[in-house]
Amino acid sequence: xxxxxxxxxxxxxxxxxxxxxxxxxxxxxxxxxxxxxxxxxxxxxxxxxxxxxxxxxxxxxxxxxxxxxxxxxxxxxxxxxxxxxxxxxxxxxxxxxxxxxxxxxxxxxxxxxxxxxxxxxxxxxxxxxxxxxxxxxxxxxxxxxxxxxxxxxxxxxxxxxxxxxxxxxxxxxxxxxxxxxxxxxxxxxxxxxxxxxxxxxxxxxxx
Length: 207
Hints:
Blueprint: H1 2-39, H2 51-60, E1 62-69, E2 75-80, H3 85-92, E3 114-117, H4 133-137, E4 146-147, H5 153-156, H6 164-177, H7 194-200, E5 204-205
Parallel strand pairs: 1-3, 4-5
Antiparallel strand pairs: 1-2
């Protein structure tokens, strides 16, 4: 009887021990599986975009150029980086007397540069239009210079580099300012740049 009870106790103890081992194995497998799953998750790097760098980049994409000469709308224009001279000339609207063949329209614009559109010239460097009788009356005998304070648009048109559009601008400036006080003041007329001024300064007078 005693030996039978002892056998039952041993059998029960053995069963509980096996059950504990199985539970431990299952728990170990579960922990290992969870750890392996999270180990495969990698951190995603965070890339910060600096607002200052973005603004600097945007600033580099814009360029400013000053267009003067034989154009209807001289002034400062803003373009995107990579724009061409042709873009600047087209924006300023070239005049009919503009000589675009003297320009490299395919050149890339550079920030802060000035672009002067030249005027067509004949072989002798002048417009070649004859003076009218009224124009001859305004030309002094000493030197044959044109008086920019009294000359008509037709007379001014005979000067090299001064077409009909520039002649009208000179007259408008003259009327607005009450006349020219110096020949150098011609450079204040819209569209007349240094090159054009150098070509006509010795051909005009103010009295």
